Amino acid sequence: MSKQKIVVVGNGMVGHKFIDNMIQHEAADQYDVITFSEEPRLAYDRVQLSSYFAGATADDLMLTSEGYYQESGVSYVLNDKVVEIKSDENKVVTASGREEAYDKLVLATGSFPFVPPIPGKDQPHCLVYRTIEDLEDITASAKQSKVGVVVGGGLLGLEAANALQNLGLQVHVVEFAPRLMAVQLDEGGGDLLRKKISSLGVQIHTEKNTKEIIDGEECRYRMNFADGSFLETDMILFSAGIRPQDELARQFNIEIGERGGIVVNNFCETSVKDIYAVGECALWNGRIFGLVAPGYTMAKVAASHISGGSEEFTGADMSTKLKLLGVDVASIGDAQGRTPGCLSYVYQDGVADVYKRIIVSEDRTKLLGAVLVGDVEAYGTLQQMCVLGMDLPESPEALILPSVDGGGGAVMGVDALPDAASICSCHDVSKGQICCAVQDGAMTIGDIKSATKAGTGCGGCVALATQVMNSELTKLGVEVNTDLCEHFAHTRQELYHIVRVEKIKSFDDLIEKHGKGLGCDICKPAAASILASCWNDYVLKDEHAGLQDTNDHFMANMQKNGTYSVVPRVAGGEITPDKLIALGQVAKTYNLYTKITGGQRIDLFGAQQHELPLIWKELIDAGFETGHAYGKSLRTVKSCVGSTWCRYGVLDSVGMAIRLEDRYKGLRAPHKIKFGVSGCTRECAEAQSKDVGVIATEHGWSLYLCGNGGMKPRHADLFATGLDDETLITYIDRFLMFYVRTGDRLQRTSVWMDNLDGGLDYLKQVVIDDKLNVCAELESEMAQVVGTYQCEWKTTIEDPEKLKRFRTFVNSDEKDNTVVFVEERSQIRPATDEELVRFVESTESEMA
Amino acid sequence: MSNTNDYSWASVCESADVPSMVGVRALLNGEQVAIFRIKGQLYAVSAIDPFTKMAVLARGIVGDLKGKVVVASPIYKQHFVLEDGSCLEDETVSIKTYPIRESNGKIELAIAEAIAA
Ligand SMILES: Cc1cc2nc3c(=O)[nH]c(=O)nc-3n(C[C@H](O)[C@H](O)[C@H](O)COP(=O)(O)OP(=O)(O)OC[C@H]3O[C@@H](n4cnc5c(N)ncnc54)[C@H](O)[C@@H]3O)c2cc1C
User: Fold this and answer.
1) Which domains does chain A have, with CATH numbers?
2) What value of ipTM does the predicted structure carry?
3) Beta pairing partners, B109
4) Helical axes A611-621 vs A577-589, angle rounded to 10°
5) pLDDT tens digit string along A52-88?
6) Which of A280, A323, A406, A455 is nearest to A51 (CA)?
7) What is the pTM of this model?
8) pLDDT tops 70 at residue A412
9) Contact state of B63 with A521 under an 8 Å Cβ cutoff
10) Interfacial residues of A (vs B; Cβ cutoff 8 Å)
C-alpha cells in the first residue's frame, strides 16, 4: 500500500502539534506529511510572544526546527500561502503556483486580529499584535513614539499595553465596553483591575467608540471618539479581538459559521470529505476556542481520526489565570453569573486590593463560576470543582474567605484531583477510569487491579488508587470496607493499637487472637512492620521471617530479573575515600552494576541471592552497615555541605543530617521515609520535597513536614521555625511516632497529611502543644527503637543458620540460569526479552 | 495424590532444609522447583513466575485467599494456588506442580519421566 499524503495548511501552534502527533504515531511511516506556512518560519510559541520584548529571540520561541522536520520526514514550504483548494481533485494550490495533491487536508490556519473599520486605520503606525514580524514593527514604531494607544481592553490588549509600557511609552487603553476584560470578568473584578492598572500609570478609557483617526497636533495621530472627546497618540495597536482565518474555506465551499469559523464535527472533520480543520480557525458546536489547549486537543483528535482512531473532541474548559501588568487575574466557568437563578458570594478587600466572587447554583450545591483578582491562590481548587461538578462544602464562602490563621482555606485530598489525573503511570490509568470501575461494581483494590490494571506495575500507586476507590465508593453511598484484608477485620491503625496494648510479639499470636486463616501478602508485611515499629526485633527471627516481603527477607531490593541490588548506608551522603574504594572493589569482585542514587548513596545491582552474604561480609569488614533501601523505613537524609564549606552556609547541615540518619535508621514505618537537611535557605538539599525537611536559618532550624517528590509531588508544610538542635529532634521523634501510629498501610506522610482531619494545625497541636497528651509516650517509644538498633546484615552474617536461607538451591551450587546479563556502557544489565530468546537459541545450538 | 506410590522419587534435601511458611528452591533435572511447608503440608510448584519468566516464586509470601493456599509472586504480586498451580488473577495462566513427599528425614520429588510413564 502506498503512503497516505497529508497536507497541513498553516504551521502555527496547532498545525505543528498535529504534525508532531503524526510523527509520534506508531504507524508514522505510513504517512507523508507536507506543511505550508505563510510565515517565514516554522511554528513558534505565540502564547509567549510578549517575552520577545523581555529579550527572548525568535529562536527562543521556536516550537520545532527544520532539522527535526527533516529527520522525521516531514516536508515544509515556508513563505508560501495556500490560495486554492480543488476538493474535487484533492489538490491545493499555493501563491507561488505550486500544486500539491492530498489524501487528507488539514486546515490549521489560526486567526487574524480584528481591526475595526475605522477611517484612517491603515496608516504606518497603526499595528497589530500576532506574529514575530508584528513585534518587530511595534519595536521600530515605539522608537519613534512617545505615546501609544491600545484599542481593546481584553486579555490580549492588556498584554499589549504591558509591552508598550515596557518599551517606554506613555500608554492608554481604549475600550468600547464599560469595563476591562469584559469577556472574563464581572463588574467588581473589572473595577478592581482598572484601579490596579491605573495605579501603574496606564490610563484606561472605557465606553469609547473610535470614529476616526486623523493627523494629530501634539502627536502623530488624533483619535476622535463618538462622544466628542479625543486622544492624541503616536502609535495605535489594535487588539480588538480575533477572527478565525477561514478565507480558504469561505472561497471553496466548505461550510462556515454565521459569524465565521470552519464548521467541524467531533472528529474535526469539515463538511467536505477528507478535509479537517483544527485550532482557532475551527468552529465546534457554534464555538471558537481562542486558547491553545483546546487547539492541541483538536490536533490530537484529528491525528487519531486520520490514523483510524476514535478519539473525539468534546469541548474545552475556557477558564483562565494570568498575570497582567503584574496583577493576578483568574476567571472560571460562568464568571458573569449568567446562569438563571444563580447566587453569588463576594469577598472584597479594599486595603490589599483583592476581589473574589464565586457563582453557585440556585440550590447552593455546585460551583458555576468564579472571578479572582489580586489573589488567585484558590484557582486550582475552584477550577476543578467547577469542571468536575463537585459538591460544594457546607459554607461555600469559606472557599474565598482568607484563612485567619494562615492554615489555608479548603484543603482537599484525592477529591481535588481531576478525572484525567494519572494514578497508575505504568498502565496509564486515570482517576476517571478507577471511578468508572467502582461504578461498575469494583469494591476492593483487588477488583480495581483486575478491572483497570492499576497498581499491577510497580505497585507504587496502590495507596492512592485505594483512596480514589474509597472516595468513589463513599460517593455512591457504599459503606467502605477498611479491613486490612480477608484475614483481619481491622485497619492498620487498629492493629497497631492491639499490638501495643496487648504486647503481642508475633504474627501467629496476632492472627490467632484477632484474625483468621493463614494470612496473605497484604497482612503479613503490614504486621511485620507494626511488630518492628513496636518491638524492633531482628527481622529474620524465625517467627518473623515468613512475614517479610522478599526485599525485607533478603535485605536487598529485588529487580526485574529476580536479582537484587545492595545499598549500604552512607549517612548524610558523606563518605571517605577508603570506603568509596571499598565499594568499588566489591562491585568489581561481584561484577555489579553501580549507580549513584537520588539519596546520595551508591546502589550495586545484579547480585544473586547466594552472593548477598558474601558481599555484605566484605562491606561490613569495610565499615559499612545496611542502608534499609529495601525497607518501609528511613531511607536517607540528603544534605548539602553546609556552613563547614559553603560560603553561604548558616549551620552545619551535614553534621545534622548524619545525626538524624543515625538516630532514625532502622525505624519501620507504614512506608518509606526520606529526610533532607539544607544549610541555608538556598535549599540545595531540596528538603521541602521530603517527609522531613530541615532548613538552617539565622534563627535556628526550620522544620518542614510531609513533603514528597516522585509520583504525586507535595511541597512540605512549614511546621516550626527557630528551633535549636534538641527541640528539632524532639519534634521529629514525636512526629514520626505519631505517623507510625496512625498511618495507613503504604501511606506516605504526604498522603497521610492530606487525609489527616484538621491537617497541619491539628498536627501542630498534637506535636507541639501535646493536645492528646501522648508526647511522653511517643518519645519513649522512639527511645526504645533508637536504643535497640542493630545492623540486620551484621546479625545475619554472624548466624550460620540464617545464612542457609540465602542459598539459591537447597540441593545444588549451580547459579540460577534464568538470570542473564549483557554489557552496556561498560557495565552489566539484565538481558531484554529478545536477547533472552537469542541467548537460549544460541546455547541450545551450542549444545546440539 | 493418592497413588504417589507409583512414582519413582528423587531425594532433593533434608527435611530440615524446608522451614515452615518460607519457600526454598531446588533443582530437579534442570528445572527450578519452589518447595513450601505450610501447616505441616508440603507443596512443590515451578519456581518460574510465568508473568516475568524469572525464577522468583520460592521467594514469595505464602498464605491463603478465599480458602486456597497460595504464594504471591514477589515481582507483580499475582497469586498461584499451590495445590493445582492455577493463577487467581488470570485463569489462562498456571504453573506446573510436582508431587512431593517426606520420607526418612528427606524431602523427595517425583521424577518427571516416571510421571510421563
Ligand atoms: C500575544 C498573544 C498571547 C497569547 N496568550 C495566550 C495564552 O496565554 N494562553 C492561550 O491559551 N492562548 C494564548 N494565545 C492564543 C494562542 O496563541 C492561539 O490559541 C494559538 O496560537 C492558536 O494556534 P493555531 O495553530 O490555531 O493558530 P496560529 O498559531 O495563528 O497559526 C496559524 C498559522 O497558519 C498560517 N496560515 C494561515 N492561513 C494560511 C494559508 N492559507 N496558507 C499557509 N499558512 C497559513 C498563519 O500564518 C499562522 O502561521 C495568545 C495569542 C497571542 C497573539
Assistant:
1) 4-112+244-306 (3.50.50.60), 126-240 (3.50.50.60), 425-480 (1.10.10.1100), 492-548 (no CATH), 550-626+791-816 (3.90.480.10), 631-790 (3.30.413.10)
2) 0.91
3) B10, B100
4) 160
5) 887 778 888 899 999 999 999 999 999 999 999 998 9
6) A323
7) 0.53
8) no
9) yes
10) 449-450, 456-457, 459, 486-487, 517-521, 523-525, 542, 545-551, 553-554, 558, 560-562, 609, 804-805, 807-812, 814, 816, 818-819, 833, 836
